[in-house]
Amino acid sequence: MGEHPTIAAQKLVLQTVIPKRTCPPEDLLLHRQEDRMVQKHVQSCVFCRERLEMGQEHPELSDITSAIAGCDERKGETDREPAPGQIWTLKSHLAGWGPEAAYFNPPLVLIVSLPPAPIQAVRVAQIFHEPDLAGPGDVYLSPEKGLAQAWNVYTLAAADLESCRGTVEDESLNDIVTQTGQSHIDPEPHSVLQAFRELELKTAYIMASRSLFSALAAENSTENISPEIELLASDDPDSVRRQIQAAHPELILPSDPNLSAKALLGLAYWDNLPLAAADADEEITINCLWLDYEQEVHLCPGRAVITVLDHSEHGLFIAGRITEARIEPKAMYAWWVDGSESYAAYQVELSPDGSYFQLSFAHPTSADCSQGELKILLLGWKK
Fold first, then answer.
1. Which of 133, 205, 209, 287 is deepest in the core (most CB within 10 A)?
2. What is the C-alpha to C-alpha distance for residues 107 and 262, in angstroms, rounded to an integer?
3. What is the count of structural domains for the chain?
4. pLDDT tens for residues 41-83?
5. How many angstroms from the chain centroid is the CA of residue 268?
6. pTM of the predicted model as reported, rounded to 2 decimal places
């Protein structure tokens, strides 16, 4: 992999990655200049302004997969059965405009695992080809295949896989699977690596949110449903309220009698802990839930750090990291609270080790998120 790159070298490499991830294709940029989103994008993108001035195609924006030896467009297999260790392109309908007038292009992904049937979904790690931007949690595959982001694993509908471009060695796949279950050191604040990883997380969010959410919803419909989820699906939230009030008198529960058990526990807050508005790099209090052997409900406070808070016309995207929890996380629910209104996240991604999360909210429309509050309910086993 060579010596550690200088900051200047990393900045130069990042400037080549940004157009690949967030600039529109040539036909859209050059032939639809009257489009409002194209105009908005060009105003903020120096690279695309130069492309318009030159009026010609740039090879830098060609599909990165064409550089993969032995995996060019002609050799991709569209009818191959998905399996762990395979590298795939994604279907073009996942591309499109996203936050901040960026046009997100589908990346290459590596299949890490397949959820049990009948769920038609895949867990994937995003791939990139710039070793100068590698950090903890990135697994080197080969010069042609690039690096897989074990820290950036998410769910997609299997139907959105387009073409298989090859496979990786079992050793590399095992390394990725192992690292997805580990905590990784965060990049230094305001560093080039942090900027790159935020870009990669946004790309992952766009791809997952445009894929088929029914596959994600079905993931909670397994026969082996946990007792905690059975509790949250209870049609008797008053019973849950009484249990929690008896066990935790210091917990302030919402007064709305129509709330579900899940919302009741998620929106509760601790009287002896300070409230904080949600903002990037802010640490917030979360609620951690577990049941004991007698099926009694227990709740305790935990902590999380928000690393990305991005609002757009499509909604609100939040990414972060669990910094303190007295449980082994296995599921998560989240709400965005704005005044007297609360909105449940329509997509929740929790890393296999329970350390990292990505949340998508469709409802908040205010451009000012500084007064809003993120509420999280984390489910798991007592440590």
1. 205
2. 35
3. 2
4. 999 999 999 888 887 555 554 443 343 333 444 456 777 899 9
5. 25
6. 0.58
d(CA 125, CA 14): 20
- Spatial neighbors of 35 by CB under 8 A, at least 6 apart, are 28
CA distance 65 to 90: 11
Question: Which tens digits make up the pLDDT trace of 293-349?
Answer: 455 667 889 999 988 887 776 678 888 889 999 887 878 899 998 877 888 888 888
Whether 330 is in a domain gets the answer yes
43 lies in some domain: no
Dihedral sign, Cα of residue 360, residue 88, residue 148, residue 175: positive
User: Residue 252 in contact with residue 269, Cβ under 8 Å?
Assistant: yes
Nearest to 239 by CA among 264, 222, 215, 256: 264
What is the 3-class SS of 332-356, one letter each residue? EEEEEEECCEEEECCEEEECCCCCE
> Given 164, 199, 218, which residue is the final one in a domain?
218
160 lies in a domain? yes
Clarify whether residues 101 and 155 are in a common domain.
yes
Are residue 184 and residue 81 in the same domain, yes or no? yes
CB 16 within 8 A of CB 22: no
Task: Tell whether 262 and 293 lie within a shared domain.
Answer: yes
Residues 76 and 113 in one domain: yes
